[in-house]
Design goal:
The protein has twelve helices and ten strands. It has 339 residues and is an alpha/beta fold. Strands 1-2-3-6-7-8-9-10 form an eight-stranded parallel β-barrel, surrounded by seven helices. The chain has a two-stranded antiparallel sheet with strand order 4-5. The longest helix is centred in the middle third of the chain and has 21 residues. The protein starts with a helix and ends in a 14-residue tail after the last helix. The structure holds 2-O-methyl-1,6-di-O-phosphono-D-mannitol. The site of 2-O-methyl-1,6-di-O-phosphono-D-mannitol (5MM) has 15 residues, from helix 11.
Length: 339
């Protein structure tokens, strides 16, 4: 457990974030297609190689989360991804859920699956070099949803996943995501986020999960994208910390926020505001889209544009690093870079 506690502390250290590059094959294919890049295995591999080999990435990221496909692929120089990441000073993370599927008896709601055979998969991933794992549960806010049935099913699965990770010596990132999509208000997001968190920590306690060896990856508390509510970063930060302060025990290693579809700039600005508040746990970022979208656009699947893609990723990681350090100025966003 000592090693896992150390790994968890590294993942949430105050001057690093986590890069989420673990899109499933189908999500990655959609993103490649939208960027005008053929949805092919080699393009998914080359894209992840471009990301993880970004010069200086380990100055702003403690680790990178990958999906099963990438974890088993190799860089052009022949090194397996986890091996190359170790050389680059990055912890290797693996997404182990198998996706959200319709939950029986709960129309329109999902439960995240992947517990079958997870013990064996985790043992294999540990052997391949995984230091940490990730499992994402998804909650939509709507009329009468999320239901208690879905909250209980998903948080129960997260607790079982966390236990299995610890058995395998892997730090679990526990991700309950309340989606931004919809017309719900900031208050509704706050209430659902707190209720999901409360249920999650009750399940984690029941399973006696060592909280100093897990990382929580939740959404920030924001109004729904169709709410028409304008909310500034200070209010978002204050409401986010409020939602978690009586819910997340102090022993928890830390919180690494997801970006959830916020623009790269909004995510960094909100992170900067969050870091200005004194909290009982370390706070950092584990962004996907808010870090990689500009890199994908700049790269365009062209081997001759790898450096452009890497510059775009370096820029967004450096923006968030500045946010962690309390010095992020959106007006200067274009000038930030690692190294
Ligand atoms: C990178 O996307 C992750 C995997 O998504 P799918 O399994 O649906 O393809 C996702 O879990 C991601 O890690 C989190 O949602 C956070 O990413 P964002 O973009 O919300 O920061």
């Amino acid at each position: 457990m000592k090693d896992m506690t150390k790994t968890a502390a590294t993942l949430v250290r105050s001057d690093r974030g986590i890069l989420a590059a673990d899109e499933s094959i189908s999500t990655m294919n959609k993103r490649l297609t939208a960027a005008g890049i053929p949805a092919a295995e080699e393009n998914r591999r080359a894209y992840r190689e471009m990301l993880v080999t970004t010069p200086g990435l380990n100055e702003g990221a403690s680790g990178v989360i990958l999906c099963d496909e990438t974890f088993r692929q190799r860089l052009r120089d022949g090194r397996a991804f986890p091996e190359a990441m170790a050389d680059l000073g990055l912890l290797a993370g693996i997404k182990v859920d198998t996706g959200a599927r319709p939950l029986a008896g709960a129309p329109g709601e999902t439960v995240t699956e992947g517990l079958d055979g997870l013990r064996e998969r985790l043992t294999e991933y540990a052997g391949l070099g995984a230091a940490f794992a990730k499992w994402r549960a998804v909650f939509r806010i709507g009329d009468g949803v999320p239901s208690w049935r879905s909250v209980r099913a998903d948080t129960h699965a997260l607790a079982r996943y966390a236990c299995l990770c610890h058995e395998a010596g892997i730090v679990p990132i526990v991700e309950p995501e309340v989606l931004m999509d919809g017309p719900h208000t900031l208050d509704q997001c706050s209430a659902v986020t707190a209720a999901v968190g409360l249920t999650l920590f009750s399940e984690l306690r029941d399973y006696e999960v060592a909280l100093d060896a897990i990382v929580l990856k939740p959404n920030m508390v924001v109004p729904g994208t169709e709410s028409g509510q304008a909310t500034g970063p200070h209010e978002i930060a204050a409401r986010t910390v409020d939602a978690f302060k009586d819910v997340v025990p102090e022993q928890t290693a830390g919180i690494a926020f997801l970006s959830g579809g916020q623009s790269p700039d909004a995510a960094a600005t909100n992170l900067a505001a969050l870091r200005k508040i004194k909290t009982p746990w370390p706070l950092t970022f584990s962004f996907g889209r808010a870090l990689v979208q500009p890199a994908l656009t700049a790269w365009r699947g062209d081997a001759g544009r790898v450096a452009d893609g890497q510059r775009a990723l370096s820029n967004r990681v450096a923006c968030n690093l500045a946010a962690l350090r309390g010095g992020y100025r959106p007006a200067d966003a274009k000038s930030y870079a690692l190294t």
